[in-house]
Amino acid sequence: MEPIRSENKVTRLKMISLALGPLVLLGLMIGAFLSGGPTKIFQSDLPAVEELHVLRHALAKDEITLEVINAGPDPVTIAQVMVRGAFWYHEISPQRTLDPLKRAQVLIPYPWNVGEPVEILLVTSTGVTFDYGIDVASITPAITLPALARFALLGVYVGVIPVFLGLCWFPFLRRLGKKGLDFFLYLTVGLLAFLVVDALAESLELTEGLPGSFHGPALLVLGVVGTYLFLLGVSYCIQQRQASNTFGPVLSWLIALGIGLHNLGEGLAIGSAYVLGELTLGAMLVLGFAIHNTTEGIAIVSPILQEKFSLKRLMGLGVLAGAPTILGCWMGAFTYSPVWSLFFLAMGAGAILQVIAVIIGQHGIKEILRPLNLTGLLVGYLIMYLTGLWVASS
Amino acid sequence: MRHYINYLLSSKLRQNRSALFCAAGILIIVLALSLAVTFPSTAMMGHGDSEYGLNGLHLRPYMMGTVGDVDHSRLDPTKYLTDVLPSTVSTLPDGRTLRTFEIYAINKEIEIAPGIFFPAWTYNGHVPGPTLRAKEGERIRVNFKNLGDRPHTMHFHGFHAAAMDGSHAHQLVPPQGTFVYEFDADPVGVHLYHCHATPLIQHLHNGLYGLWIVDPKEGRAPAKEMYMIMNGFDPNFDEENEVYAVNTVAFHYNRHPIEVKQNELVRLYLANMLEFDQINSFHIHATFFDYYPTGTQKEPRDYTDTIILGQAERGIIEVRFPEPGDYMFHAHKTEFAERGWMGLFRVMPTDEKTTVQHGHHDLVK
C-alpha cells in the first residue's frame, strides 16, 4: 500500500524541515530560557546540590589516592580533606572544582596502617561533607607481571578448572537414557535459575552504592533486557539459517556465553573484594567457588549430549564459560568500577535468562511439571544454593 | 591463514561459528569499552615537592593540617588578636565616664578554613565579635542595631539590670530594630557577650559572641596583650564540629605564628565559646603560665601549662617564653587540635643578656 500523500510529492526538503522543526523550536526555547527571563522564576536561594562520590581508592605505602566523581547537577569544590578526623595535606588533580560528572584524583600522603580501617572525609566549599571508608587497609596491587599472574591463577582456580571439571561429566551424561537426559536438562535450568537470582541480587545491591545520576536500576534493566533480546535475536537468526532443528550446539554456546558473563562478574567481585580488603581469600573460599562453579559444566553440556562428540567444541565451550573469570579478576583487582560490575552482572543475568527461556520454550512449559523434571530443577537450584553456602561473602 | 579462513567459513562449522563470533564479539566490545574507560583514570599523580626532616625522613605523609590559606581581607584573626572596638568617651553629670560602643548584627559568609565557607551571623561583620574593653566603674552604653534577617540580642556577662539582660523573648531586637544597653563596667575581669535569641545553639554557634573586658582601676602590669576565643564550626549541620580553632580560622596561627619577644610578659584574655562539645582546653608548649580564672582575682589560681574550660568559662593567662623559637599552643584534646585548634608562638630573641625569668615562680635549680 502506498502512502496516502505520496502523489503530493512531498519534497525531501520539506520532510527534513518537518523533522527538524520541533528541534529548532526546542533550541529556541532553551536559548530563551538560558539567556534570561524564565530561569529567574525557578531560581531560589537554596544552596547548590552537592554530590561527590568516591569511585575507588588505591593505597600505596604512606599514600592514599581517591578517584572522585561529581555525581550532582552543580559544580562542587573540594576545599579540604580529613583523614580519621584530622585535616590532612592532599593534592587534587586536575582541579579542586569539579563540574558535573567530572572526575578528580585526590592524593593524600598519609601513614596508614595495614589492616586498619581508614575513614576519609571530603569537605566541600560549603561545608558539606562526604565520607568514604576503607574497611581494611592494604596495599593496592600495581599492574605488574607477578600480580597479573597471581590474579590469573586465582581466576583459573575459581573459574576455569571447575568448569572443565564439570565438562568431564560429558561421557557419563551421554550414556544416560532419555529420562536421565531430561532430568539433567532441568537440573541445568535449576542451576541457571540460581545464577540469575544471584546475579540480580548482587547487581541490585550494587545499584544502592552508585550515585543517583548513574541511574543504577536503569543500567541493570538495560543489561538484563538488552542482553536477553540481543541473544534472542542472534539465536533466532541462527535458527532461521539452519534447516534442521538441532538447536543443541547453539544452546550450548549461549549457555557458555551466559555463564562466561556471569563468571566475569564473579571474577570482578572476587578481584575487587580482595583488593578492597573485604575478602580474605582463604583456601575454603577458593574451594567453595570451585565446587560451586563445577556444576556449571553440567549446564553447558546438557544440550549437546545427543550431538556428535567434538573435543574442540567442548574445549571452546569451557574456555568461553571459564576464561572470563580471569579477565574479571584482573579488572576487579586493577580497575574496579562498580558501574561496570553492575553492568556485567546484569548482562550475565540477561544471557542466562534467555537460555532458560529457550530450553523451556523448546520443550514446552508442561514438561517442567513432570515429577522427574521438577525434581531435577529443584535439585539443580539446591546444589547451587548449598555449594553457594561455601562462598559466604559473595 | 587462507586455509584457516576457509575452514572457518566452511558450512561444517557454520552453526558453531556464528554463535562463537557473536559471543566473542560481545565480550571483546564490552571489555574494550570498560578498559578504555577505566584504565586512563588509574594513572596516579606524580609526587610534588618533597620535604625531608631529621635523618632524611620523608615528611610528606606526616603533614597534618589544611591546604591553602583564607582571604584575610574578609576575616583576619591576626588583626583580631590585638584589636579593641573603638569607643566614644564623655563625662556624665556625676563625673563618671560614659563609654559608648556601636554594635550591629549582620549576616556574613566567612571562611572558617581555607576554601570552606560558613554562613555566619556576626557582630560588626566578624567572628568572634569585636572586643569591648572598659575600666572598672565606667558607665557603658552599647547602641545595638540589628541588620540581620532575624531577631538578635546582646547579653552581657556581668552586673546589669534585668531589663538589660537581652535574654527574654520580649527583649528580642527585630530585624532593623535598635536597642541601647546600659550598665556599669563591673566586675573586673574577662567576660563575654553573646546573642541570647532562640534557638540558642544556632545563634551562638553561628558566631554571635565576643569578649567583654573590664580592667581594674589601677590597671594591670604592662604586657603584650591578646584576645583569644576558642570556637568551632559544624558546617554540615550534624551537631558535631568539623572545624575547631582559636579565633575562628582553622590553623591560622600555624600559618601565621604569633610573634612575641623572648621573656616579654604576654597576657592572653581567653574564653571558650565552643558549641556541641562539653569541654575545651588550652595548652602551651615548653613554658608554664599563671592562670587567673575569669580574671577577677589578683593572685593566680594555678601555675600550669594546661587548663580545661567549659562553655563560657574564661580567664587570663600570663606567660613568658624563656627561649627563642617556635612554640605550639593547642587544645590538649587532640581531636580538636587536628581539626584546626592549633597555633604557634614565634619567640624572637632579645639581645639583652637577661636571666630567664618565670615571674614570681622562679625555678631554682
Task: Report what the structure shows.
The complex is a heterodimer of chains A (394) and B (365). Chain A is an alpha+beta fold. Chain A has three domains: 6-42; 52-134, Immunoglobulins (Immunoglobulin-like, Sandwich); 145-388, no CATH class. In chain A, helix 7 runs parallel beside helix 9. The mean pLDDT of chain A is 82. Helices cover 58% and strands 13% of the residues of chain A. Chain B has one domain (77-348): Immunoglobulin-like. Chain B has helices spanning 2-9, 11-38, 77-80, 200-205, 252-255, 334-338, and strands at residues 88-91, 97-113, 116-123, 132-135, 139-146, 155-156, 178-184, 189-194, 209-215, 224-233, 243-246, 258-261, 266-272, 279-284, 289-293, 302-304, 306-310, 314-319, 325-330, 342-348. The longest helix of chain B has 28 residues, at 11-38. Chains A and B meet through strand 1, strand 2, strand 3, strand 4 and strand 7 of A and helix 2 and strand 3 of B.
Topology, element by element:
The complex is a heterodimer of chains A (about 400) and B (about 375).
Chain A: H1 12-34, H2 37-42, E1 52-60, E2 63-70, E3 76-83, E4 86-87, E5 91-93, E6 97-98, E7 103-109, E8 118-124, E9 129-134, H3 145-167, H4 170-174, H5 178-209, H6 216-241, H7 248-275, H8 283-301, H9 311-322, H10 324-334, H11 338-363, H12 371-388
Antiparallel strand pairs in A: 1-2, 2-7, 3-4, 3-6, 3-8, 5-7, 8-9
Chain B: H1 2-9, H2 11-38, H3 77-80, E1 88-91, E2 97-113, E3 116-123, E4 132-135, E5 139-146, E6 155-156, E7 178-184, E8 189-194, H4 200-205, E9 209-215, E10 224-233, E11 243-246, H5 252-255, E12 258-261, E13 266-272, E14 279-284, E15 289-293, E16 302-304, E17 306-310, E18 314-319, E19 325-330, H6 334-338, E20 342-348
Parallel strand pairs in B: 2-5, 4-9, 10-13, 12-20
Antiparallel strand pairs in B: 1-2, 2-3, 5-7, 6-8, 8-9, 10-11, 13-18, 14-17, 14-19, 15-16, 15-18, 19-20
